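S1.2 Input.
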Amino acid sequence: MTTILRNEPLWNKTTFRIGGLADRLIYPETNVEL
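S1.3 Output.
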């Protein structure tokens, strides 16, 4: 999910934030600050 969100320019900051939190819950080792 992180890679998809990172490569999709149409997502807004809120979606990035929600997706980032979801990814951190699923993949704790992946902490990417956008």
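S1.4 Remarks. The chain is about 55% helix and 0% strand.
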